[in-house]
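May I ask you to comment on the folded chain given beneath this request?
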Amino acid sequence: MINLIAVIIAIASVLAALGHVGYLALLNNAAGKRAGGAPVAQYVRSRWALAGGATAASLFAWLLTSGNVVLDVISIVIAVGSGATSMKALQSTQAKYRSGG
């Protein structure tokens, strides 16, 4: 049962991390096409390390779910940490560049 919980949390963490990476990619693409987009592109470049690290940690947590119960618990801790980090970073980036529609 704990393995199923660990797998679900790890998958959610990977999805959150990939969401952050995808948002940064879209933002970088839009900044490259727009005149005066250099400050946004520079901000995105500064965030790639965080996004990549969180994604790697999430994938590592998912990999750990194939072990025993102790590894499942470690996987849950890593996945929750990396998923929370990804979500917080995504929300802060969205808040910084949210345009009023």
